[in-house]
Amino acid sequence: MLPQTLFSTFLLLNTYFFQFAIAQTCPPPPTCPPLSPPPRPTRTVTYVRPRPPLYNPSLRLLPRQPNSNPGPLANRARILSITQELKRNITYDPQNYTGTWVGNNYCLFKGYICDTVPDRNITGLAGIDFNGARFGGNLNFYRFITNLPDLAIFHANSNNFSGVINQGLNGLRYFYEIDLSNNKFMGGFPSNVLGATNLTFVDLRFNKYLGPVPRSLFNFDTDVLFINNNVFSRIIPPNFGNTPALYLTLANNNFTGTIPRSIGAAWETMTEVLFLGNKLSGCLPFEIGYLNRTTVFDVGSNRLTGPIPQSFGCMARLQLLNMAHNKFYGPIPEVLCRLPRAFNFTLSNNYFTQVGPQCRRLIRLRRLNVNRNCIMGLPNQRSTADCGRFFARPRTCARESTFSVIPCRLPAASLRTRTVSQEDEVPPAPRSYNALVKPPH
Ligand SMILES: *[C@@H]1O[C@H](CO)[C@@H](O)[C@H](O)[C@H]1NC(C)=O
Ligand SMILES: *[C@@H]1O[C@H](CO)[C@@H](O)[C@H](O)[C@H]1NC(C)=O
Ligand SMILES: *[C@@H]1O[C@H](CO)[C@@H](O)[C@H](O)[C@H]1NC(C)=O
Ligand SMILES: *[C@@H]1O[C@H](CO)[C@@H](O)[C@H](O)[C@H]1NC(C)=O
Ligand SMILES: *[C@@H]1O[C@H](CO)[C@@H](O)[C@H](O)[C@H]1NC(C)=O
Ligand SMILES: *[C@@H]1O[C@H](CO)[C@@H](O)[C@H](O)[C@H]1NC(C)=O
Ligand SMILES: *[C@@H]1O[C@H](CO)[C@@H](O)[C@H](O)[C@H]1NC(C)=O
Ligand SMILES: *[C@@H]1O[C@H](CO)[C@@H](O)[C@H](O)[C@H]1NC(C)=O
Predict the structure, then answer these.
(1) 357-377 confidence digits (pLDDT tens)
(2) Could you tell me the distance, in angstroms and rounded to a whole number, from the CA of residue 345 to the centre of ligand 8?
(3) InterPro entries under this entry (predicted)?
(4) What's the rounded Cα separation, in Å, for the pair 368 and 365?
């Protein structure tokens, strides 16, 4: 009795499995893609990165001195001089930062953060926090920062900094965090920022940068890479998957071409990735399915097409999936709807044609949105004429056989019906979507 039940369950699963697969046959190796994960990218350099607190505490330095009595100050004359130059250039200072930039003790200046400089073991300027200061005037970022040699963090979103970053920032030996979002930078990608090889947080959102991003950006060792809401264009370089960043936002630029196959190589690190709002085209590489630590995957509002690869069933931690407003088609794979952490899967405004029982269950739970597709029998679908026009043209993808590849043992939970507690689980808010909100100016 029992083996019989197991066997029929197995059959049932297999039926669902293959019923919705696009290409059911895969020629034998070497044409068949390998099922082992793609090789880890070889990182050219390994960096020792200072982490918060500002400088590495294991150095056993003097404790941070009180700002009112910091003792001798590192680079005092140089920092006071560049501060006065910046102050002269600031024509608008609604929060009166510059009113406090008087005297010889820069630790008391508003926006200046002091700490013990590791290699000098005296107090120095470790951080700048001008976030939201809304300074006006002609402010030269590069000239300012290169005169702050002990700096670890520079936060200056929503100001009027501009200017060319015309040489590397590698004179800043402790620098690890840069936020220049919502300033007035323009021109090509500031490759010289990549000279600051210890950066762990690179935020260039909401500027007016144009043109291609260099390959070196994705060999650059950083945890956070926010370049959304600029006018970057051309392709996403093929070494994209080399990036060790956990959080990446490429959203709302002008990128074209396909999502690079190398993306699968980032499976150890990639946690949230937003391609939303570009002009990406072509079919999805099945290698996306290697991303089993990714919680947020967003390719909404592009020109992507093709079916959803069955490999998406391997994205065991996926919570938020947005593929809306593209030209995807075909059946929605049941393996996708079995993912144990599915929380908000938005597939609306495409040309999908079928949903199976697992996907119908997610629709009922309001976790899957398939509005405005071509799924017969469901409400809120496109008109027959609209669908007819779309499918009148033959639609194919390169590497068709890879769409049925499942490069993992499917997560166990995905083969079971989810428990009630899992259904109630609300995942933590993703970090990357906040990056799409413009810092207040
Ligand atoms: C994620 O994928 C890698 C490589 O494909 C595999 O070794 C690892 O066990 C997977 N982890 C989970 C949680 O599935
Ligand atoms: C820093 O200076 C203090 C006091 O002079 C000393 O005790 C400590 O050992 C110094 N630390 C280093 C790493 O030189
Ligand atoms: C700015 O702050 C300084 C020092 O706190 C104060 O003396 C000055 O009056 C302030 N200026 C304005 C315009 O509020
Ligand atoms: C911002 O800087 C630019 C020069 O980069 C200048 O033309 C403009 O007037 C400045 N805007 C404000 C509000 O100060
Ligand atoms: C201040 O303005 C002058 C003249 O425009 C410019 O050469 C200089 O680089 C600016 N310095 C800073 C720190 O903004
Ligand atoms: C990066 O940090 C290491 C270790 O703190 C340091 O030796 C190196 O000079 C730094 N690199 C740059 C470009 O500042
Ligand atoms: C985006 O790129 C296309 C060509 O790929 C170009 O025609 C268009 O002007 C670009 N848009 C902007 C805002 O630069
Ligand atoms: C689900 O995701 C879509 C697309 O990212 C978003 O527009 C929508 O607000 C989300 N819904 C919920 C309930 O979070």
Answers:
(1) 999 999 999 999 999 999 999
(2) 8
(3) Leu-rich_rpt, LRR_dom_sf, LRR_extensin-like_regulator
(4) 8
Distances (CA, A) of 340 to 19, 23, 304, 410, 414: 21, 25, 26, 11, 5
- pTM of the predicted protein model: 0.81
Number of C-beta neighbours around residue 59 at 10 A: 11
In sequence order, the β-bridge partners of residue 280 are 257
* Domain spans in the chain, listed from the N-terminal domain onward: 73-436
Indicate the residue type of 380.
N
Q: Report the distance separating Cα 309 and Cα 328, nearest Å.
A: 11
CA 140–ligand 5 middle distance (angstroms): 6
- Are the C-beta atoms of residues 231 and 253 closer than 8 Å to each other? yes
Q: What residue spans of 286-434 are helical by DSSP H?
A: 334-337, 357-364, 384-392, 420-424
- If one looks up domain 73-436 in CATH, what number appears? 3.80.10.10
Kindly report, residue by residue over 186-224, the tens digit of the pLDDT: 788 887 777 777 778 888 888 888 999 999 899 888 888
On whether the CB atoms of residues 325 and 301 are closer than 8 A, the answer is: yes
- Relative to the alpha carbon of 116, which ligand is closest? 2
What is the pairing mode between strands 279-283 and 303-306? parallel
Indicate which residue's Cα is closest to atom 10 of ligand 5.
140
Q: What is the DSSP string of 350-378?
A: SEEEE--HHHHHHHHTT-EE--SS--TTS
Strands of 196-347, DSSP E: 201-203, 208-211, 224-226, 231-235, 247-249, 254-257, 272-274, 279-283, 296-298, 303-306, 320-322, 327-331, 344-346
Q: Is 101 in the pocket of ligand 1 (CB under 6 A)?
A: no
